[in-house]
Write a structure and sequence with these properties.
By secondary structure, the protein is α/β, with parallel strands linked by helices. The chain is built from three helices and five strands, in the order βαβββαβα. It has a five-stranded mixed β-sheet with strand order 3-4-2-1-5. β1, α1 and β2 form a beta-alpha-beta unit. The longest helix is centred in the N-terminal third of the chain and has 13 residues. The termini are far apart.
């Protein structure tokens, strides 16, 4: 099973999540990763939402992290 994380936890990320769930049922989303928890849910469809630092500490390993936020946030995330 392919495990991924989604960077983001708002409308774009939730839309990507439901599209993946429908089109690629073999892909499992392990976590939603965010820059900061303020204004974000604690979980989405039972999947935890956590900061990048918390995700790194968790020890989870995924094959990909999909960036699912509005374009104006991309530079901040990618660095």
């Amino acid at each position: 099973m392919n495990q991924i994380a989604i960077y983001g936890a708002q409308m774009v990320a939730v839309s990507v999540y439901y599209a993946l769930k429908t089109l690629y049922p073999d892909v499992q989303v392990a976590a939603f990763v965010v820059s900061n928890m303020e204004g974000n849910p604690v979980q989405i469809d039972g999947i935890p939402v956590m900061t990048l630092e918390a995700y790194e500490r968790s020890g989870d390993k995924v094959s990909k992290i999909l960036i699912a936020v509005p374009e104006n946030f991309h530079a901040e995330i990618i660095g």
